[in-house]
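INFO batch 0412 | record 1 of 1 | parsing
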Amino acid sequence: MKTERTPYLWPLFLITFLFMFIPSIYAQDSTLAQAPIFVDEEPVNTKYLFKEGHMLVPAMFFKHTGAFVDWNREYRSVVFKGNEELIALPVGKKFTDEYDSGTWKRGVLSTEAIEFKGDVFVPLVDVAKKLGMNIKYNPTLNRTFITTNITIKSNSIKSVETNEKLVALTFDDGPEDYYTPKILDVLKEKGVPATFFVVGNEITKYPDVMKRIVKEGHGIGNHTKSHPNLRTQWSSVVREEILSTQEELQRVVGRKSDLFRPPYGAITKADIKVLNEIGMRNIMWSVDTLDWSGLSADKIIEIVHKEINPGGIVLQHNFQYGRLLDGSVEALPRIIDDLQKEGYTFVTLQTLLAKEQSASIERNQRSFEGKLKE
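INFO prediction complete | emitting tokens
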């Protein structure tokens, strides 16, 4: 037992000197130390602190491993679900409740979970091990590595592989009644379809604008109910944000979408797992116009020309807070005209993804036929 613990306790002791030393969880410094922890070889930067010689990280960190993380208000416990493991850590208690073969059993912790500056912190090594993960510290690299042993199907589309000069315009954060009608007017005049990633609360506020989007032949996608950063949300909240928006779409326009885009592009492996379970595709982008920052039309057009490629997905916005999108609306007809002159055809994301699927089937068929001839 002693031999098994030594590789973890000694490196963690070293970290207290190699990183910012935190002598107490009640330290007066308002800024916690941060460090990257490598999860399945990918770095995840996280806050951390030490208590009784043990490294604690925010409970939400474990969403990056693919584990679901939730809060049980009744028992004031953080609940983690891995592959088969289900464990609860009550705040302020030096034990766990672990579900095994239909019953809850009591487990032990090196130190208790704590609340600190608005976050719940949990012992890194204990939780990782109890979720069936492998964790080790490399003193040479001064880094901690976690192998999660959780397999999650890849689900992130930034562009589509195609030889055709197809491009999809996308608009996030609406509908609303200032910029969205202007954007729709331009698209209608140019005879160009786009895809709108809509927010549930905005659908409720502006149902007529939402109906116009669909009536005029544009694609729709889910952009959550209230536009939170999913990395900071409990897994059950993430699921509800998505499903409630699906229901609002169904209520207002009579159909749902299988396309999803996370607010701010922020997403964890656990959130991807939620999407996979619901049956939704995670859509990112290949061209970020940065229009939300108030860029001029000329600058936005410059970005598009620099980053566009066949199968590209262009990110723009249609929120009205701060009235920052004048440049984006001004740029839109020029983007359309310029790219059409270059031979591009504008399509909805649904059409673009269907083209990729068709091309993939053809490639697989040719590969299969080639093997038969060998």
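INFO post-check: The chain has ten helices and 20 strands.
INFO record closed
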